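User: For my dataset I need records formatted as: sequence, then structure tokens, nothing else. Please produce one.
Assistant:
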Amino acid sequence: TALMIDADETALNLPWELMADTEGPLVLKWPVGRIVTTRTRPRPERDPRDEDTTIAVLAVVDPSRDLSDVDSELAALRRLGEMGYLRLDVLEGDAATHASLAGHVAATAYDVLHFSGHGGFLPGRPGLSGLQLADGPLLTRSIVDLPWQKPPYLAITSACWSARSAPDRRLATPRGGGNGVAAAFLSAGASGCL
């Protein structure tokens, strides 16, 4: 009914979603997920038994102010908040800075961090990959070093290159950053990254 892939951290770069059999792509037949096996010890994850029932979401939206569809995306999130399904905090445009992001994650244990913006990936130096905030790039080392009250259960990064990783490298880079943005969130203690 489903396919779960246990991938070694050095094979994160493989396009596992393109796996196919004689009938076509497996992702069109079954739900497919991936678990990363690593020799790196990520920060401890949160225990949902110790949490309240409110889903706290931090949306970091269009820090560069040049994306066209973010208004409808943000409106959908706000509707969910108005229906009582979640608590929503928003850092939008010029307010999406390093300091404001750090302040928010230090003050609140967000369940979901949702980023909509630009990202970059450098295959030869994945620790210099990151997400673009209003005042400059949030590099992988900075993601790991954010003063998380508790890391999010889920980081959603709607940004180009944010799921990429360099081949034959570990989840965390030697200087403590991540092998790309998703690896940095996992190293910081997030349970998952989309």
